[in-house]
Model the fold of this input.
Amino acid sequence: MIASRLRVLAAACALGLSPRIAADTPPVVDAPAGAVRGEAVGSVHVFKGIPFAVPPTGARRWTPPQPVPRWTDTRDATRFGPGCVQPPSRPESIYAWDLPAMSEDCLTLNIWAPAGARQAPVFVWIHGGALSSGVGSQPMYDGARLAGQGVIVVTINYRLGVLGYLAHPALSAESPLNVSGNYGLLDQIEALRWVKRNIAAFGGEPSRVTIAGESAGGLSVMYLMAAPDARGLFARAIAQSAYMISTPELRSSPHGDIASEAAGVWLAGKLGAADLAALRAMDANAITTGAASSGWLPFGTIDGHVLPRQLVDVFDRGEQAKVPILAGFNAGEIRSLRALLPPAPADAATYDRQIRERYGNLADAFLARYPSSRIEDSMLATTRDALYGWTAERLVSTQTAAGAPSFLYYFDHGYAPAEGMGLHAFHASELPFVFGTAGNTPSRWPAIPSTPVETRLSDVMVGYWASFARDGGPGVKGQPEWKAYGSERAYMAFEDGPRPGVHLLPGMQELVEQVVCRRRASGKIPWHWNVGLASPPLPPEAAPCR
Done:
């Protein structure tokens, strides 16, 4: 447990120090991993840059993470560790911010704990960034506000891009399981193991861990729910703007995806690496930027062990962790992700014709939901629903069927600077409200005004998220009841305030499910952002997939 003020005061008295001086003493925790010295920020104790795995450099590059041996000295934990190696941010992006120093020695975590915490719930945050960028120390993820609700917040780093997700036959040959890839996911699992072993020393309850993440962090949450090695390391899950897309498999190519090992061999050739030794000898930044510029994309790998099968199959078969879940998405997801959209058609007639060519006997249902009378809005909604809306509702419906309390949300809040940029409720725009960090957004992010509306909305969302981590259900005194999804298909919309409703976007879930069902049955077509005007012709109707 945290070295409380009483312990510090007792030590101070033994040294003849005054209680006032002792109260300013930095908090020290003697955890099983070793002692760490943090800093007190108001009523929250903060510990930064704690290593949870041995640095995966040199011969350790592309190997599963190994625990750090216990250290003997008290480790300074007042500075964040370096970020994992990643390409530089695009300066014009609203998500761009000044990255910290980067290194392969990046497997660290950060903790925000209420002073004097005892058996507190734990909220482990997994950052987004398409599995290729991001860091747990980003200011927007500051855990102080959630810690103020009695929740211990942990943010983690994990290997990214080619360093985190490369599969290759030579790497598989080194593995006792004859598999490769998924190193970033294994880092997340190792971080959760560290939390299980150590969080009680900080005042946390190891049996009350909630895993949470947004975008690629939400994808990671689903991977963890599907991964046998992660079973028992968490009790609840939060998936914000997650996407249950088809995932490459290690040596086969179902659903039109290139096998992960084959993609790794191709990438090694593009990088001019003759063998695994040459890959390991390459500079980390050079291999990362080279892989990104070649078009290689990081994904988890279905290897039969770390990830046993496609996510949709895991959840359909009931093989996932059957834990309570809170999941949702944003109304304007694609407004800040327009690179995912195909080119717009010349006119409404062209739009209608192309949709009918692609969707066959589902075209009428498609055009009723995404009409040619509003082409831009329809295109934005098509990709939003196929990636994020369908995933969120599929998660809560599947967990509900498994007997786990499940809660759906829809973030539909706009504010003047975002509206002026055409970014109503854009991808990740809920994050500053969830963390209570409106003043910590990147420089090009539409600035969140300090109005009573914004403040109240953030207070409410912080409260709902904290109560879910604490109790397994979101509830805030004096605010609307957030009902479980259940048979009513209940959800909570966050507009200028929380607005409960039932049956979000009628017809959306059914339509996307039919599209994915046909693609799965064909065994030849992936399901991701290749929808609407970018969709290949749908196969004929198949037997139900669920």
